[in-house]
Amino acid sequence: MKNSDGTPIWYELITHDPKPAQDFYGAVMEWTFSSPPGGLLRDYRTFAATDGEGVGGVMKAPADASFAPIWAVYFAVADVDAAAQQVKALGGSVHMEPQDIPDVGRFAFVADPQGAMFYLMRGHTDAGSTAFAPMKAGHCSWNELVTSDQDAALAFYGKLFGWEKTGSMPMGKNGNYTFFGKGDVEMFGAMMNTQDEGAAPFWNFAFNVADIDSAKAAVESGGGTITHGPIELPGDQGDWMIQLNDPQGAKVMFTGKRKNGAM
Predict the structure, then answer these.
(1) How many CB atoms lie within 10 A of CB 249?
(2) 133: in domain
(3) Selection from 259, 227, 262, 258 nearest residue 240 by Cα
(4) pLDDT in tens, 163-203
(5) The pTM is what?
(6) 75 has which bridge partners?
(7) Are 143 and 132 in contact (CB under 8 A)?
(8) Which residues form the domain of 163?
């Protein structure tokens, strides 16, 4: 299997109405959408970046879902059943027991001990994922865990996936911004303390855009709400970030360069 345990291999928007979600993200991200062959019991649409590589899907939330709309991630594992059992043993929970998707793979929907939800996935083939590609427009550039206990979260994911702390950046009263990955080989993202007391921990994701200013304008004209930014990210790459809620309320981030100068 080319995707090592803990590699983010697919992103999924669980939302109330996939059609307006497709319209919004299609305009902002220039993603192209399609329906999987064979048909599904639930409205599901996959999307690809402008390079044609698959990144994720959009799914209509179950009528009784209390957590939608949210963005979720599929993390690769060699054995979904064993990993789901390990999630339980480490204090997490399993919301959907391991099951198969014909010609796609085996998956489970789980949560860490603090409540942040994610998928475990073993693909039907050993092909490497194209979803997480930090330097490519339309692909995911960053995976951010917003949690109530960074130490406990790092211990959980360390035992489950082999992740380790690769560095940190102080954020004043908000504590540290802790980077994680597998040494210098695989850097997946970071974790931070939740800023809203009592809010449920969650996974937050950034997707690359060609121009952050154009993306901001498209978000606002499409009915989304910018909640933070644009802010310049640390480093010398000239990258900027905006945090937003899409028109149905899902939290997401976009990152990219500024082609038009300061606002």
Answers:
(1) 13
(2) no
(3) 258
(4) 999 999 998 888 899 999 987 667 899 999 998 877 899 99
(5) 0.94
(6) 8, 120
(7) yes
(8) 140-256
